[in-house]
Write a structure and sequence with these properties.
Helices cover 46% and strands 19% of the residues. It folds into 2 domains: 60 residues, no CATH class; 189 residues, Vaccinia Virus protein VP39 (Rossmann fold). The chain has 13 helices and 10 strands. Helix 1 crosses helix 5 and helix 3 packs antiparallel against helix 5. It has 274 residues and is an alpha/beta fold. The chain is globular, with a radius of gyration of 20 Å. Helix 12 links the parallel strand 7 and strand 8. It is an enzyme of class 2 (transferase). Keywords: Methyltransferase, Transferase. Its EC number is 2.1.1.80. GO terms for molecular function: protein-glutamate O-methyltransferase activity.
Length: 274
């Protein structure tokens, strides 16, 4: 089971996560009429049932997310990073990629901030791509439907009332928010969806589950879809130090990363000297 997860997603199921495997797979056993984990493992080995494979992977993936997760990151984005990009982009096109977006709260949090500042971004084309390997996570993200518990985790009440509407016991993001985001199922190790370069790339709390070799592969992908003024944001427990030669700590925005190049290296040298 852990081999299937790693082969399909690159994620290594640590001992800390392995204990929940049986609980996570109970719905899969029920839906496919299987008695236990051993029978499931046998069926996976004997057949090429793509639906069963996908259901197992979806069940084992960690789709933990919340609105405005790590609020200081969103403050950094909207108070420092985006104003700098806005000053530099004469074509008025802003491209953002949320890689490993899970059920979409990160992308919706970005869209909410843009909608709340609509006058500031008048005349701009804002493209938000959000990708994840989990088909179940992308289906939920695309629907824009979140439970009461989901919206209570990080979503300000004013934004809930303004940008969401009741959907039974749940809440659905309004059409304006949903139209801003292109949700796609994609694999970071065989990526098909990203095109061109993005101004802002978020790959937060994704690399934690990968081997060093897999992390290097993801950094190479992110580098291919960035330019010399792009900004990369990782999770709090993630870093590029010792992981990639493509990115360096950003000389201007603390906690973010820039493509390695003369300007970034010079800025970092100046910061170290200071």
């Amino acid at each position: 089971m852990t081999g299937l997860l790693e082969a399909r997603t690159g994620q290594v199921l640590s001992e800390g996560r392995a204990w929940r495997m049986e609980t996570a797979l109970k719905p899969v056993l029920r839906d496919h009429g299987l008695q236990d984990i051993d029978e499931l493992a046998g069926k996976l080995l004997r057949s090429r049932n793509s639906r069963l494979d996908e259901d197992v992977v979806n069940a084992l993936l960690n789709n933990e997310s919340s609105f405005f997760r790590d609020l200081q990151i969103f403050d950094l984005i909207h108070r420092q990073i985006l104003p700098r990009i806005q000053d530099e982009r004469g074509d008025r096109v802003l491209r953002i990629w949320s890689a490993g977006c899970s059920t979409g709260q990160e992308a919706y949090s970005l869209a909410i901030r843009f909608c709340n500042e609509a006058a500031r971004w008048a005349g701009w084309r804002i493209e938000i791509l959000a990708t994840d390997i989990s088909s179940a996570a992308i289906d939920q993200a695309r629907s824009g439907v979140f439970s009461q518990m989901d919206v209570q985790r990080g979503l300000p009440i004013g934004d809930l009332i303004k940008w969401f509407e009741p959907a039974g016991d749940d809440w659905r993001a309004n059409p304006e928010l949903r139209r801003m985001i292109d949700f796609r199922q994609d694999n970071l190790f065989a990526a098909r969806v990203p095109t061109g370069a993005y101004d802002l790339l978020l790959c937060r709390n994704v690399l934690l589950y990968f081997s060093p070799e897999r992390r290097q592969s993801v950094f190479d992908l992110l580098a291919r879809h960035s330019h010399d003024r792009s900004v990369l944001l990782l999770g709090a427990g993630e870093a590029v130090i010792g992981q990639s030669e493509e990115f360096v700590p950003h000389p201007e925005f603390r906690g973010s990363y820039a493509r390695r190049g003369p300007s970034a290296d010079a800025g970092n040298s100046a910061r170290r000297a200071g």
